[in-house]
Design brief:
It is a single chain. The protein has 15 helices and 22 strands. The chain is an alpha/beta fold. The protein has 2 domains: about 280 residues, 3-Layer(aba) Sandwich (Aldehyde Dehydrogenase, Chain A, domain 1); about 200 residues, Aldehyde Dehydrogenase, Chain A, domain 2. It is globular and about 70 Å long.
């Protein structure tokens, strides 16, 4: 791992891919519009990125459709698609420091998280789906002897992926790797707050040998470029990660256009449920603090609610407040930083508003409620935000049931297991939940009752590329990671042969 000074020096020498990537070439937006790429680290403009509109999106979709219809990727032997994607993963590994820096500079993730987690996870994802490309078997249905029914997976066609800014490269790869592995053509619209790493990925995809038009990137504003993809009648499927409100818009766009398939991984309000029989409060305290504050709380599965039994609450809170003091917002390029900065000044202001609202509604702050003050270079609200723990939180308070997407933890006290379940299910989200209990029987009871796509026992937010993630209720539907991700990007086609 490089030193702070070495990362800073490397950052000075970075060049940025900042144009749209359509049909195998980088190009300006047709209208020549751009938007500023501002680093939350210091408020400085890194570059100006092409702002695609409906015309650019139409070109990208046409390139994807033409490449799909030509069969240049779709009809390629699966072993050849595998080789090309493995080459892409190899190139990503060769550029791992650059990719890590791009995400840290772009959205404030610590360089340690980016270099040791975000980018390696993206590389592993591309490798994993590449290896699966030639290992997917079709099916034969158990029909009567006078017929044969063969069931094939076929690529859905043109896939649009709209991805968020909190893990820019990783979540993009969660979408594009399985979609490409089964032969689709893809258009990726990254979040305008963090586009740099996926534009670099486009450059590496070209070098790896992915044919022109098969992978396209259209940076731009969500309500322009993203909306255009959602409404485009030649897009067959759209995969989105982001807020539940925007996810709802994509469902509307699908209904207004061609009923394209939509999959959504949206908001979360994940509870860490610490029950009275939890025997390792040290481990629980560390996991709760880490789960609430990692990546500045900008994680869909952030453990933003602590639902704790009154019998262990005081001891747990004491341990947590000590640990929370280690989570000071520092320069993202400092390898010792546990947290960096929020993704933008506008988002920092929103998080501060929630802190103010929590106080106004009667919650009791246990840590400093002020953020780091004014940004020296822009005069806007600082993106370096001090984590906060609120006690005396009621389930009806906004900070308890609305997604803040910042380092704010709400503590809700309960007196029974059933009350803990009731509180856990009291939000419109159902993405994840963690249960802390020394009894596996108790875990099973609570896990069966809690509404969540993933439930952890005595840990939080653990996973593997082979294990699916996703939720239900307003957290969305469809799964990223694992073999189940393929279901979003294939159709099942049956050939019925009459032998009678």
């Amino acid at each position: 791992m490089n030193t702070h000074e070495q990362w800073q020096e490397m950052a000075k020498g970075l060049s940025f891919a900042k144009q749209a990537f359509i049909n195998g070439d980088f190009c300006d937006a047709i209208a020549k519009q751009t938007f500023d790429c501002i680093s939350p680290r210091d408020g400085q403009r890194l570059c100006q990125i092409s702002a695609c509109d409906e015309t650019d999106v139409d070109l990208a979709v046409k390139a994807a459709r033409d490449s799909f219809q030509s069969g240049v990727w779709r009809d390629l032997n699966a072993k050849e698609r595998k080789k090309t994607l493995l080459k892409l993963a190899e190139l990503m590994q060769q550029h791992i420091q650059e990719l890590a820096l791009l995400d840290s500079l772009d959205m404030g993730m610590t360089i340690s998280d980016s270099y040791l987690g975000n980018v390696p996870g993206a590389i592993e994802c591309v490798q994993w789906y590449a290896e699966l490309a030639d290992k997917l078997y079709d099916e034969v249905a158990p029909t009567s002897k006078d017929a044969v029914a063969r069931i094939y997976r076929v690529p859905v066609g043109v896939v649009a992926a709209v991805t968020p800014w909190n893990y820019p490269l990783l979540i993009a790869c969660w979408k594009i790797a399985p979609a490409l592995a089964v032969g689709n053509s893809v258009i990726l619209k990254p979040a305008e707050q963090a586009s740099l790493s996926v534009l670099k990925l486009a450059q590496l995809a070209k070098e790896a040998g992915i044919p022109d038009g098969v992978f396209n990137v259209v940076p731009g504003l969500g309500d322009v470029a993203g909306k255009a993809l959602g409404l485009h009648k030649s897009v067959d499927a759209l995969a989105f990660t982001g807020s539940s409100a925007v996810g709802g818009l994509y469902m509307q766009y699908a209904g207004q256009s061609n009923l394209k398939r939509v999959s959504l991984e949206c908001g979360g309000k994940t509870p860490n449920i610490v029950l009275a029989d939890c025997q390792d409060l040290d481990k629980a305290a560390a996991a709760v603090v880490q789960g609430a504050f990692a990546n500045q709380g900008q994680i869909c599965n952030a453990g933003s609610r602590l639902i704790v039994d009154q019998g262990v609450k005081e001891a747990l809170i004491q341990k947590m407040t000590v640990l929370a003091k280690e989570y000071q917002a520092l320069d993202p390029l400092d390898p010792d930083a546990k947290i960096g900065c929020l993704a933008s000044a506008a988002h920092s202001k929103k998080v501060q508003q929630y802190v103010n609202l929590g106080i106004a509604q009667g919650a009791s702050p246990l840590l400093n409620v002020e953020n780091a003050g004014e940004n020296d270079t822009t005069g806007q609200a600082s993106c370096y935000f001090s984590p906060q723990i609120f006690d005396q939180v009621e389930a009806t308070m906004a900070i308890s049931h609305e997604e803040i997407f910042g380092p704010v933890l709400s503590v809700i006290t309960v007196s029974s297991i059933d009350q803990a379940i009731e509180v856990a299910n009291s939000t419109p989200y159902a993405l994840g939940a963690a249960i802390w209990s020394s009894s596996y029987q108790t875990f099973e009871y609570v896990a069966n009752a809690v509404e969540a796509g993933v439930v952890w026992h005595n840990c939080h937010d653990h996973g593997d590329i082979s294990s699916p993630v996703g939720g239900f209720k307003q957290s969305g539907f469809g799964r990223d990671k694992s073999i189940h991700a393929f279901d979003k990007y294939v159709e099942y086609k049956t050939y019925w042969v009459n032998l009678k």
